[in-house]
Design goal:
Number of helices: 11
Largest sheet: 7 strands, parallel
Strand order of the largest sheet: 3-2-1-4-5-7-12
Shape: globular
Length: 323
């Protein structure tokens, strides 16, 4: 029998793509989207009882800090995909949403008889690295920020309930306001392109993450526990920086100065917290190796970064033009 699915975080960057993909997925019997605010722009089909080449879809209001709304949302659901999180929030909000909110959601799902729980997390639960071709089960949980620490706590509730957690590292694409914009912000603070780093990174486009979450939710071969989700080919940091540099040059509208190496960049940007954070990440490998999403779950890993970035570069340029 086709499953009935609940998706949290339907107004977010990744959760919104999961919702849009699910509402056109004919193998689903029903899609319910949990949102604490109206969907803007509305996800196709996200009105009660509507269809857009897919299952009936409804949006229900609720939030992770309201256990009663979570109990109502989980009623009659077979599968839960949990994408909601508080990123960059203060400690109190992060704990209330990522930790305590996930615990309340998992409790509600278990009591409602949900048979599959899949949650979106982050490879940042492992800390700073370096990580080179790291396989699942080989790294300690050592988060370095409030966001990562509380998301790691939320993971534990999902895993303890027999659920599955997906951990991407860098996710890009239309709707991204952190990964590529963060690199642009770093480069724009320098007089010229950043060079000298040689690290490798696990990178994935948002459309593929959405498909991977749905595959994990629906495949009979899904295993309990964590998966890493990144394109099979890690991306050299020079390729990431070159892509971001094209956007910096576009926004500047003028030639850039000479290249700056990592040591010079640290000196120039000393005392700027966001710069130190990005430079530390770029300086070491963050490469997580896990072929199970692409082989066992039979999910297409999507385009490599060069092709994927080219497709979404117009969206990033438009974002920067209006920022």
């Amino acid at each position: 029998m086709a499953p009935r699915i609940l998706i949290t975080g339907a107004t977010g960057f990744i959760g919104g793509r999961v919702a849009a993909t699910a509402t056109a997925w004919p193998e689903l019997a029903h899609v319910r989207l949990l949102s604490r605010r109206p969907l803007t722009p509305p996800t196709p089909g996200a009105e009660r009882g509507s269809r857009v080449d897919g299952p009936p879809t409804e949006t229900v209001r609720g939030e992770l800090r309201d256990p009663d709304s979570l109990r109502r949302a989980c009623e009659g659901v077979d599968v839960l995909i949990h994408c909601a999180s508080a990123i960059g929030a203060d400690e109190e909000q992060a704990r209330a949403v990522n930790d305590e909110g996930t615990r309340s959601l998992v409790d509600a799902a278990v009591r409602a008889g949900v048979t599959r729980i899949v949650a979106l997390s982050t490879a940042s639960v492992h800390g700073r690295g370096p990580f080179r071709a790291a396989a699942p089960g080989t790294l300690p949980i050592a988060p370095g920020s409030v966001t990562s620490r509380t998301r790691a706590a939320g993971e534990r509730y999902v895993i303890d309930a027999g659920g599955t957690v997906l951990r991407p590292h860098l996710v890009y694409g239309a709707g991204d306001r952190q990964v590529i914009p963060g690199l642009v912000r770093l480069l724009a603070a320098l007089p010229g392109p950043l060079t000298g780093a040689g690290s490798l990174h696990s990178v994935i486009d948002v459309e593929t993450v959405a498909r991977a979450l749905l595959a994990a939710a629906l495949s009979p071969r899904t295993e309990a526990g964590p998966y890493y989700v990144g394109h099979p080919e890690p991306v050299p940091v020079a390729e990431l920086l070159a892509a971001a540099e094209t956007l910096v040059a576009h926004r500047a509208g003028a030639p850039r100065g000479p290249a700056v190496d990592s040591a010079a960049a640290r000196a120039l940007l000393a005392g700027i917290p966001f710069a130190a954070h990005h430079l530390d990440m770029l300086a070491s490998d963050h490469w997580f190796a896990d072929d199970r999403p692409w082989q066992e779950l039979e999910c297409d890993p999507g385009p490599g970064f060069a092709t994927g970035f080219t497709a979404c570069a117009p969206w990033y340029r438009q974002l920067l033009d209006h920022s």
